[in-house]
Amino acid sequence: MFHIIQNDPEVPPGNITTNLRDMGIPVTVCHACRNEPLPLPGETQGVICLGGAMCANDDQGYPFLVQVKEFIRETVAHATPYLGICLGGQLLAAATGGRVVANRWEELGTLEVELTAAGREDRLFAGLAPRFGSFQWHHDSFDLPAEGVLLAASPACPHQAFRIGACAWGTQFHPEVTEGIIRAWCAWDPATRGRADELVAAWEAEGGYGATARRLLENFVAAARER
Protein backbone atom coordinates (compact mmCIF):
# COMPACT_ATOMS: atom_id res chain seq x y z
CA MET A 1 0.00 0.00 0.00
CA PHE A 2 1.21 3.49 -0.91
CA HIS A 3 0.23 6.45 1.25
CA ILE A 4 -0.33 10.05 0.18
CA ILE A 5 0.01 12.68 2.92
CA GLN A 6 -2.22 15.70 2.24
CA ASN A 7 -1.18 18.80 4.17
CA ASP A 8 -3.67 21.30 2.79
CA PRO A 9 -7.33 20.75 1.79
CA GLU A 10 -6.72 22.89 -1.30
CA VAL A 11 -3.65 20.97 -2.47
CA PRO A 12 -5.00 17.56 -3.58
CA PRO A 13 -3.10 14.64 -5.16
CA GLY A 14 -4.22 15.58 -8.67
CA ASN A 15 -2.97 13.13 -11.29
CA ILE A 16 -1.05 11.05 -8.75
CA THR A 17 -4.03 8.98 -7.59
CA THR A 18 -5.20 8.48 -11.16
CA ASN A 19 -1.78 7.35 -12.36
CA LEU A 20 -1.23 5.04 -9.38
CA ARG A 21 -4.62 3.39 -9.86
CA ASP A 22 -3.96 3.03 -13.59
CA MET A 23 -0.78 1.18 -12.59
CA GLY A 24 -2.78 -1.08 -10.28
CA ILE A 25 -1.13 0.41 -7.18
CA PRO A 26 -3.30 0.49 -4.04
CA VAL A 27 -3.15 3.93 -2.44
CA THR A 28 -4.77 5.72 0.47
CA VAL A 29 -4.82 9.43 1.27
CA CYS A 30 -4.03 10.49 4.83
CA HIS A 31 -5.29 14.01 5.56
CA ALA A 32 -2.63 15.23 7.98
CA CYS A 33 -4.32 18.63 7.90
CA ARG A 34 -7.32 17.00 9.61
CA ASN A 35 -5.08 15.28 12.17
CA GLU A 36 -5.73 11.85 10.70
CA PRO A 37 -3.22 9.26 11.98
CA LEU A 38 -0.12 8.86 9.86
CA PRO A 39 0.94 5.40 8.70
CA LEU A 40 3.79 3.57 10.40
CA PRO A 41 6.90 3.76 8.19
CA GLY A 42 7.30 -0.01 8.31
CA GLU A 43 3.72 -0.58 7.19
CA THR A 44 3.77 1.45 3.97
CA GLN A 45 5.44 0.65 0.68
CA GLY A 46 6.00 4.29 -0.17
CA VAL A 47 4.97 7.79 0.90
CA ILE A 48 4.13 10.81 -1.24
CA CYS A 49 3.84 14.03 0.75
CA LEU A 50 2.00 16.89 -0.96
CA GLY A 51 2.33 20.65 -0.89
CA GLY A 52 0.48 23.34 1.01
CA ALA A 53 0.10 27.07 1.37
CA MET A 54 1.73 27.13 4.81
CA CYS A 55 5.45 27.38 5.53
CA ALA A 56 7.33 24.29 6.68
CA ASN A 57 8.44 26.28 9.74
CA ASP A 58 4.93 27.28 10.81
CA ASP A 59 4.50 24.71 13.59
CA GLN A 60 2.61 27.18 15.77
CA GLY A 61 -0.01 27.99 13.16
CA TYR A 62 -0.25 24.38 11.94
CA PRO A 63 0.66 22.08 14.84
CA PHE A 64 0.19 18.93 12.75
CA LEU A 65 3.44 19.82 10.94
CA VAL A 66 5.36 18.74 14.04
CA GLN A 67 4.00 15.22 13.66
CA VAL A 68 4.56 15.23 9.90
CA LYS A 69 8.24 16.16 10.29
CA GLU A 70 8.73 13.51 12.95
CA PHE A 71 7.05 11.00 10.64
CA ILE A 72 9.42 12.03 7.84
CA ARG A 73 12.46 11.54 10.09
CA GLU A 74 11.22 8.05 10.98
CA THR A 75 10.50 7.30 7.32
CA VAL A 76 14.04 8.27 6.30
CA ALA A 77 15.56 6.29 9.18
CA HIS A 78 13.50 3.26 8.18
CA ALA A 79 14.59 3.67 4.51
CA THR A 80 10.95 3.77 3.42
CA PRO A 81 10.75 5.43 -0.02
CA TYR A 82 9.52 9.01 0.28
CA LEU A 83 8.65 11.63 -2.33
CA GLY A 84 7.97 15.15 -1.07
CA ILE A 85 6.40 17.69 -3.45
CA CYS A 86 6.89 21.43 -2.82
CA LEU A 87 5.96 21.77 0.87
CA GLY A 88 6.56 18.01 1.12
CA GLY A 89 10.10 18.57 -0.16
CA GLN A 90 10.60 21.52 2.17
CA LEU A 91 9.42 19.39 5.09
CA LEU A 92 11.94 16.70 4.12
CA ALA A 93 14.68 19.34 4.17
CA ALA A 94 13.54 20.72 7.53
CA ALA A 95 13.19 17.26 9.06
CA THR A 96 16.73 16.27 8.07
CA GLY A 97 18.61 19.39 9.13
CA GLY A 98 18.11 21.74 6.20
CA ARG A 99 16.79 25.29 6.33
CA VAL A 100 13.51 26.44 4.78
CA VAL A 101 13.38 30.13 3.88
CA ALA A 102 10.13 32.02 3.41
CA ASN A 103 9.57 34.33 0.43
CA ARG A 104 12.75 33.38 -1.42
CA TRP A 105 13.20 32.19 -5.03
CA GLU A 106 9.49 32.49 -5.82
CA GLU A 107 8.25 30.84 -9.01
CA LEU A 108 4.71 30.72 -10.40
CA GLY A 109 3.84 28.95 -13.64
CA THR A 110 5.38 26.57 -16.15
CA LEU A 111 9.17 26.81 -16.10
CA GLU A 112 12.07 24.59 -17.09
CA VAL A 113 14.28 22.79 -14.61
CA GLU A 114 17.62 21.19 -15.40
CA LEU A 115 19.05 18.03 -13.91
CA THR A 116 22.45 18.16 -12.30
CA ALA A 117 25.06 15.50 -13.09
CA ALA A 118 23.81 13.58 -10.04
CA GLY A 119 20.22 14.06 -11.17
CA ARG A 120 20.96 12.57 -14.59
CA GLU A 121 22.16 9.44 -12.79
CA ASP A 122 19.34 9.34 -10.22
CA ARG A 123 16.66 6.67 -10.62
CA LEU A 124 13.83 9.11 -9.88
CA PHE A 125 14.61 10.93 -13.14
CA ALA A 126 15.52 7.91 -15.27
CA GLY A 127 14.23 8.31 -18.81
CA LEU A 128 13.59 12.05 -18.48
CA ALA A 129 15.30 14.70 -20.57
CA PRO A 130 18.13 16.62 -18.86
CA ARG A 131 15.90 19.71 -19.12
CA PHE A 132 12.13 19.48 -18.83
CA GLY A 133 9.07 21.65 -18.18
CA SER A 134 7.70 21.80 -14.67
CA PHE A 135 4.85 23.60 -12.94
CA GLN A 136 5.95 25.82 -10.08
CA TRP A 137 3.86 27.39 -7.35
CA HIS A 138 5.98 28.39 -4.38
CA HIS A 139 7.09 31.39 -2.38
CA ASP A 140 9.37 29.49 0.01
CA SER A 141 12.40 27.35 -0.77
CA PHE A 142 14.76 24.92 0.93
CA ASP A 143 18.48 24.78 1.55
CA LEU A 144 20.05 21.38 1.17
CA PRO A 145 20.57 19.35 4.35
CA ALA A 146 24.19 18.42 5.01
CA GLU A 147 23.66 14.95 3.54
CA GLY A 148 21.45 16.12 0.69
CA VAL A 149 22.39 15.54 -2.97
CA LEU A 150 21.24 18.26 -5.37
CA LEU A 151 19.44 16.72 -8.36
CA ALA A 152 17.85 19.63 -10.24
CA ALA A 153 17.99 23.42 -10.46
CA SER A 154 16.49 26.34 -12.35
CA PRO A 155 17.75 29.90 -12.99
CA ALA A 156 15.29 31.40 -10.50
CA CYS A 157 15.48 28.63 -7.89
CA PRO A 158 18.79 26.75 -7.62
CA HIS A 159 17.37 24.02 -5.38
CA GLN A 160 14.66 22.21 -7.36
CA ALA A 161 15.16 18.62 -6.26
CA PHE A 162 17.36 16.67 -3.88
CA ARG A 163 17.79 13.23 -2.35
CA ILE A 164 18.55 12.11 1.18
CA GLY A 165 20.01 8.63 1.50
CA ALA A 166 19.00 6.05 -1.07
CA CYS A 167 15.28 6.65 -1.40
CA ALA A 168 13.98 9.94 0.02
CA TRP A 169 13.41 12.67 -2.54
CA GLY A 170 12.14 16.24 -2.38
CA THR A 171 11.08 18.42 -5.30
CA GLN A 172 10.19 22.10 -5.43
CA PHE A 173 8.04 21.66 -8.54
CA HIS A 174 4.57 20.11 -8.84
CA PRO A 175 4.27 17.07 -11.14
CA GLU A 176 0.72 16.38 -9.91
CA VAL A 177 -1.13 19.43 -11.22
CA THR A 178 -4.23 19.38 -13.40
CA GLU A 179 -6.06 22.25 -15.06
CA GLY A 180 -8.53 22.35 -12.18
CA ILE A 181 -5.73 22.62 -9.62
CA ILE A 182 -4.03 25.45 -11.52
CA ARG A 183 -7.27 27.41 -11.77
CA ALA A 184 -7.99 26.90 -8.07
CA TRP A 185 -4.51 28.08 -7.04
CA CYS A 186 -4.75 31.16 -9.26
CA ALA A 187 -7.80 32.23 -7.25
CA TRP A 188 -5.74 32.37 -4.04
CA ASP A 189 -3.98 35.65 -4.78
CA PRO A 190 -5.11 38.91 -6.44
CA ALA A 191 -1.82 38.92 -8.37
CA THR A 192 -2.75 35.67 -10.16
CA ARG A 193 -6.55 35.77 -10.06
CA GLY A 194 -6.81 37.16 -13.58
CA ARG A 195 -4.05 34.97 -15.03
CA ALA A 196 -5.69 31.55 -14.89
CA ASP A 197 -6.24 31.24 -18.66
CA GLU A 198 -2.67 32.39 -19.35
CA LEU A 199 -1.10 29.96 -16.86
CA VAL A 200 -3.25 27.04 -17.99
CA ALA A 201 -2.37 27.74 -21.63
CA ALA A 202 1.36 27.77 -20.84
CA TRP A 203 1.02 24.49 -18.93
CA GLU A 204 -0.92 22.89 -21.82
CA ALA A 205 1.71 24.11 -24.28
CA GLU A 206 4.29 22.01 -22.41
CA GLY A 207 3.17 18.99 -24.41
CA GLY A 208 5.19 16.39 -22.54
CA TYR A 209 4.11 17.41 -19.05
CA GLY A 210 1.75 14.51 -18.47
CA ALA A 211 4.31 11.99 -19.68
CA THR A 212 7.02 13.53 -17.48
CA ALA A 213 4.78 13.39 -14.41
CA ARG A 214 3.81 9.79 -15.16
CA ARG A 215 7.42 8.68 -15.71
CA LEU A 216 8.61 10.31 -12.50
CA LEU A 217 5.86 8.51 -10.58
CA GLU A 218 6.66 5.20 -12.28
CA ASN A 219 10.29 5.61 -11.28
CA PHE A 220 9.31 6.26 -7.68
CA VAL A 221 7.06 3.18 -7.65
CA ALA A 222 9.87 1.06 -9.12
CA ALA A 223 12.27 2.30 -6.42
CA ALA A 224 9.70 1.50 -3.71
CA ARG A 225 9.13 -1.99 -5.08
CA GLU A 226 12.87 -2.65 -5.01
CA ARG A 227 12.94 -1.81 -1.29
Q: Could you explain how this protein is built, in words?
A:
The protein is α/β, with parallel strands linked by helices and 227 residues long. The protein has a single domain (2-226), classed as 3-Layer(aba) Sandwich (Rossmann fold), CATH 3.40.50.880. The protein has helices at 15-22, 64-77, 87-95, 117-121, 179-186, 196-205, 209-226; strands at 2-6, 27-31, 46-49, 82-85, 100-101, 107-115, 131-138, 141-142, 149-153, 161-164, 168-171. The strands form two sheets. It has a nine-stranded mixed beta sheet with strand order 2-1-3-4-11-10-9-6-7, sandwiched between helices. Helix 1 (15-22) crosses helix 7, helix 2 (64-77) crosses helix 3 and helix 5 packs antiparallel against helix 6. The longest helix is centred in the C-terminal third of the chain and has 18 residues, at 209-226. The two termini are 13 Å apart. The model has no long low-confidence stretch (mean pLDDT 95).
Give a count of the beta strands, DSSP E runs of length 2 or more.
11
Mind summarizing the main beta sheet?
9 strands, mixed
For the record, the count of structural domains works out to 1
Using only CA atoms, what is the Rg? Answer: 16 Å
Multimeric status of the protein: single chain
Overall geometry comes to globular
